[in-house]
Specification:
- By secondary structure, this protein is α+β, with helices and mostly antiparallel strands.
- The chain has 2 domains: 196 residues, 3-Layer(aba) Sandwich (Rossmann fold), CATH 3.40.50.170; 104 residues, Formyl transferase, C-terminal domain (Methionyl-tRNA Fmet Formyltransferase, Chain A, domain 2).
- The chain is elongated, with a radius of gyration of 23 Å.
Length: 313
């Protein structure tokens, strides 16, 4: 097939690589604009653009696709299918049916669960033990198109969003190739989604990372994993931001302290009381400081064994 690839971040890179090594031909790549990055605010190209440039594939970075000029441009490419992986922009309806095989999207969940912008993060935050990837025909709704193929992926008890991101990207790259091959041989039957089973994964905001110690230790742990690396899970110590990068639920017998109480436990180290259960902090980062082991943090704030302090606003 002649393909147009549309994608932007690192999640889309494995799929583009897979297509470039396949019998299919990637005619052009559409991606978002270069963005300022780093302390110098220098323009940085999206990962997909960098890969496409290495392979001398034409790259387009339109601010909007609604203009008729872009429709004419894509029509002249005479592609058989459009592959979309985390492009990050709303697509015009004319794009869905322009090629023979339509526009195929790779989504990082088992649709109709976790439609939306952050399916990896919210699946972990909600305590799921299984997720996956879905290929679907794009329509005018938000991830509502007919399902083509799906592949399940287990979520480990210590997986962060970064860990799961990489596994899903790899599995998704193979699923896209299988989908295209089956479409070309007419061996795939699209399956409509059941809207009654739909759940949503909205775009992440910084405030999503604030920990609520009134939750159970398992729920807090899920959010720490889900929001690593961004927006990062955090609480407050005497008004200063305290990020929690790594932790684990633990059992502390007869713990009746107020949720949010940080105790220097004699054997477990930094332990925070939750509504149900406790959480052992393992790696933290105080505002304007480096990430450090939680035991070093206890020494730094001079919290002696069996002493406690309250975290939060």
């Amino acid at each position: 097939m002649r393909l147009l690839f549309m994608g932007t971040p690192q999640f889309a890179v494995p799929t583009l690589k897979r297509l470039l090594s396949s019998p299919h031909s990637v005619i052009a790549v559409f991606t978002q604009s270069d963005k300022p990055a780093g302390r110098g605010e220098k323009l940085s190209a999206p990962p997909v653009k960098r890969l496409a440039s290495e392979h001398e594939i034409p790259v387009y970075q339109p601010e909007k696709l609604k203009a008729e000029a872009w429709q004419r441009t894509i029509q002249t490419m005479a592609v058989d299918a459009i592959v979309v992986v985390a492009y990050g922009k709303i697509l015009p309806s004319w794009l869905f049916t322009l090629p023979l095989y339509g526009a195929i999207n790779l989504h990082a969940s088992l649709l109709p669960k976790y439609r939306g912008a952050a399916p990896i993060h919210w699946a972990i935050a909600e305590g799921e033990i299984t997720t996956g990837v879905t290929t679907m025909k794009i329509d005018a709704g938000l991830d509502t198109g007919d399902i083509l193929l799906q592949e399940k992926v287990d979520i480990g008890s210590d997986d962060t969003a970064a860990d799961l991101h990489d596994r899903l990207a790899a599995v998704g790259s193979d699923l896209i190739l299988r989908t295209l091959d089956l479409l070309e041989s007419h061996e795939i039957e699209p399956i409509p989604q059941d809207p009654k089973l739909a759940t949503y994964a909205p775009l992440l905001k910084k405030k999503d990372g604030e920990l609520r110690w009134e939750q159970t230790s398992r729920e807090v742990h899920n959010r720490i994993r889900a929001f690593n690396p961004w927006p990062g899970a955090y609480t407050y110590l005497h008004g200063a931001l305290l990020r929690v990068w790594k932790a684990a639920p633990v059992i502390v017998p007869d713990n009746a302290q107020t949720p949010g109480t940080l105790t220097h436990h004699n054997s477990l180290g930094a332990v925070v009381t939750c509504r149900q259960g406790s959480l052992q902090l393992q790696q933290v980062q105080l505002e304007n400081r480096k990430k450090i082991p939680a035991q070093d943090f206890l020494h730094g704030i001079r919290l002696a064994q069996n002493q406690s302090i309250l975290l939060g606003r």
